Fold:
Amino acid sequence: MLEDWLAPKAAALESRGLTRRLRARAADEDLIDLAGNDYLGLARDPRVIEAAAEAVRVWGTGSTASRLVTGTTELHEQLESALAAYVGQESGLVFSSGYLANLGVVTALGGPGTLLISDEHIHASLVDACRLSRSRVEIFPHNDVDTVEKLLAERNEPHAVVMTESVFSVLSDEAPLTALAATAAAHDAVLLVDEAHGLGVTGNGHGSVHALGLAGLDHVIVTMTLSKAMASQGGVVLGPQVLRNHLINRSRPFIYDTGLNPPACAAALAALQILQAEPDRPMRIHTATNRLAEATGVPPAAGPVVSIPMPGPHEAVAAADLCLENGVRVGSFRPPSTPDGLSRLRLTAHAGLSATDLERAGAVIVDAIGQVS
Ligand SMILES: Cc1ncc(COP(=O)(O)O)c(C=O)c1O
Structure:
């Protein structure tokens, strides 16, 4: 029965070059990795590894239950305080992924009395959060503050949340956060900023909300993943204490989910401490991004991602495969994962790349694009 149901769907995807495939990664591979999101190059740092291993020895491998039952350890509380202080927000609450942090905060604020206003390039986790929220949802053209203003002014709902990313995940461009925060404040609305690609990268690592002086405002909420610059797993919602208390009581992805596991907490905490002790790491990401952009002929990006448009999905996959054969792993993004329907090569820069790596990667990528285009 499933064969009749799903096989035609699989065939349709295949004919359009949109089939997704899993490819196992070897532990000892010798590659230049421009596809992972380990922006600060800390996922294999011995200090991060040791912190995670020590947490396993002390706390075991899992949290054992929801944070509200037995799943809260001192590591969770230390991590929440450290992240909040680093980003300049009053408090934080960690979730077991960035995806769940977004679902958790939006659904807890959503409902019939809340209008959700979402940038059209927003990450899938926020799209899904809107769908789950039972709110009216309006989508605004990318970075268009005037439309946000109009939607806020015309609403009937008492509450509204404007949602954006500080640095967008595919195009790596920035949101007009200062204007969005002012517009939201003028209309008694909340601004939610997903800093998945800002933490550890923009604002000398503290993220864009902090850099723009918007941290700590009582209508600004920040969400972050711990799976990228923090070299771990998990997510966090950062904002006023009253929000944290509300999430603990009303956020289903927090209440009904087993707490973030202790080694993930400890790894993220160790990564954050290294970032604070070695504040030049974010600058190394920007240097790498600029070199990759220059080598591949695309404009420099605000964030850690270099996004190269390709003629189509087949070419994107073929170019990524050629790069891999030549020792460079890059991502290929195809619809529906791209906001504008264009297929792309997606290169992520990280602080661990040497000048030689960057030179070699640039040459391999340019050659691969030339071969498939
Ligand atoms: C902008 C953005 N938000 C949220 C997430 C989800 O985070 P996680 O992987 O921790 O679930 C991601 C990517 O993974 C992302 O790019």
About this structure: The chain has two domains: 46-277, 280-372. Residues 355-372 form the longest helix (18 residues). The CA atoms of residues 113 and 157 lie 5 Å apart.
